[in-house]
UniProtKB/TrEMBL annotation:
Pfam families with a match to the protein in the record: ABC_sub_bind
Gene3D superfamilies: 3.40.50.2300
NCBIfam families named in the record: ABC_SBP_TrpX
Superkingdom, natural source: Bacteria
Organism of provenance: Streptococcus oricebi
Matches recorded under SUPFAM superfamilies: Periplasmic binding protein-like I
Protein known as: Peptide ABC transporter substrate-binding protein
InterPro entries: ABC_SBP_TrpX-like, ABC_transpt-TYRBP-like, Peripla_BP_I
Length: 336
C-alpha cells in the first residue's frame, strides 16, 4: 500500500515537471510574437498648421517624408492633421482637440501653432516645425537644453546674407521698409535683428506692422512712397496674403525681398532662404526620434541658419535690374 502511494506521488511529480517544461517552451515561443505586435503598433501624430501657404505646406510634406525615412509610413502611422487658417481662436480650440485625441506626439507648424499646443499640453511631447525664435516665443528655456516637453527645429533668418544680396542687386537703395505682422512674435525678433544689421550697414530702416491681412494694401500704399526697397521677414500672416503685397506694389515698382521661395515665385525680386522641405524633413526625423524614446527636455533644438539665393529673373527684368553673373551662377534657384 505504501509502495502504491509512493509510486503515485512520484508519478504526479514527473507529470508536474514535464508540464512545466512544456509550458515554458510554449511561452518562450509566444514571446517574439508579443514583441512583434509592439513594433507594429500604429503611432498617432497630431499636426497643427497655422495657415495655408506654399511654404508651410512644403514643411508639412517634408515632415511626412522625414517620418517615412525613419520607417513611419503606411499602417505604422496615423496623422491627425488640422489647419487653423490663421485664426487664433481656432489655434486654441484645435490645440486642445489634438491634445485630447491621445496623440503620441504633437507637431506645431509655425510659431502660433506651436504656442497653442504648448498651452494645451504640459506633458505630451511637442515638436516645433520651423520656429524662428523658440526662446523668445517662450517655447523652450534653452536651445541646447529645452528643459520641458517642447523641442524641434528653428529656421533662423539669414538676415546678413539678405542684406548682402540687397546691396549687390540694388546698390542705390538707401531706405528699406519692413512689412510684418504685429501679432507674430517671431516676426518682431527678426525685425529687430535685421534693423540692427541694416542700420550698422548705413541703411535707414522704416518698419511697418499690420494687425491682419486686411491692412496690407493701405499700409503698402503709404510705405512705397517712403522707401526704396521692401524687406519681409519669415511671417505667416504676410505670406498668406503676399499676392496683395505684389498687387499693391504694381505702380510703385519697389524691389521686394521676402524670406521664402514661394514668395519670390509670386512676385518678389530675390531672397536668401532656408529650404522649407529640408526643415520639414528634419522636423519629421525629430518626431521619429521622440517616438523611439528620446525626451524633448534633453533633445537640442536643431537650427537652420544658412540659406540659398533665389532670384526671380522676370521681376528683375521688369524692374530693369541687371543681375551680376557671379550671383546668378551661385544662385540656388533662378525663377524665369
Amino acid at each position: 500500500m505504501q509502495n502504491k502511494s509512493l509510486k503515485l506521488i512520484l508519478g504526479l511529480l514527473v507529470l508536474l515537471i514535464v508540464g512545466a517544461g512544456i509550458y515554458s517552451g510554449f511561452t518562450s515561443k509566444k514571446a517574439p510574437k508579443t514583441n512583434q505586435t509592439s513594433k507594429d503598433k500604429t503611432v498617432k501624430v497630431g499636426v497643427l498648421q497655422y495657415v495655408s501657404h506654399p511654404s508651410l505646406d512644403e514643411i508639412y510634406k517634408g515632415i511626412q517624408d522625414g517620418l517615412a525615412q525613419e520607417g513611419y509610413k503606411g499602417a505604422k502611422i496615423k496623422l491627425d492633421f488640422m489647419n487653423a487658417e490663421g485664426d487664433q481662436s481656432k489655434v486654441a480650440t484645435m490645440s486642445k482637440q489634438l491634445a485630447a485625441n491621445k496623440n503620441d506626439v504633437l507637431v506645431g507648424i509655425a510659431t502660433p501653432a506651436a504656442q497653442g499646443l504648448a498651452n494645451a499640453s504640459k506633458d505630451q511631447p511637442i515638436i516645433m516645425g520651423a520656429i524662428t525664435d523658440p526662446v523668445g516665443a517662450n517655447l523652450v528655456k534653452d536651445l541646447k537644453k529645452p528643459g520641458g516637453n517642447v523641442t524641434g527645429v528653428s529656421d533662423n533668418n539669414p538676415a546678413q546674407q539678405q542684406l548682402d544680396l540687397i546691396k549687390t542687386l540694388t546698390p542705390d537703395v538707401k531706405t528699406i521698409g519692413i512689412l510684418y505682422s504685429s501679432n507674430e512674435d517671431n516676426s518682431k525678433t527678426q525685425v529687430q535683428e535685421f534693423t540692427k544689421l541694416a542700420e550698422k550697414a548705413g541703411y535707414t530702416v522704416r518698419p511697418y506692422s499690420v494687425p491682419s491681412t486686411n491692412e496690407i494694401a493701405s499700409t503698402m500704399s503709404i510705405m512705397t512712397s517712403k522707401v526704396d526697397a521692401i524687406w519681409i521677414p519669415i511671417d505667416n500672416t504676410i505670406a498668406s496674403a503676399f499676392s496683395t503685397v505684389v498687387s499693391s506694389n504694381k505702380e510703385a515698382k519697389k524691389p521686394i525681398y521676402p524670406s521664402a521661395t514661394a514668395m519670390v515665385e509670386e512676385g518678389g525680386l530675390a531672397s536668401v532662404v532656408v529650404d522649407q522641405h529640408d526643415l520639414g524633413v528634419a522636423t519629421g526625423k525629430m518626431v521619429a526620434k521622440i517616438l523611439k524614446g528620446a525626451k524633448p527636455a534633453d533633445t537640442p533644438v536643431e537650427i537652420f541658419n544658412k540659406g540659398k539665393t533665389v532670384i526671380n529673373t522676370k521681376v528683375a527684368a521688369d524692374l530693369e535690374i541687371t543681375l551680376p553673373e557671379e550671383v546668378t551662377k551661385k544662385a540656388g534657384k533662378l525663377i524665369k
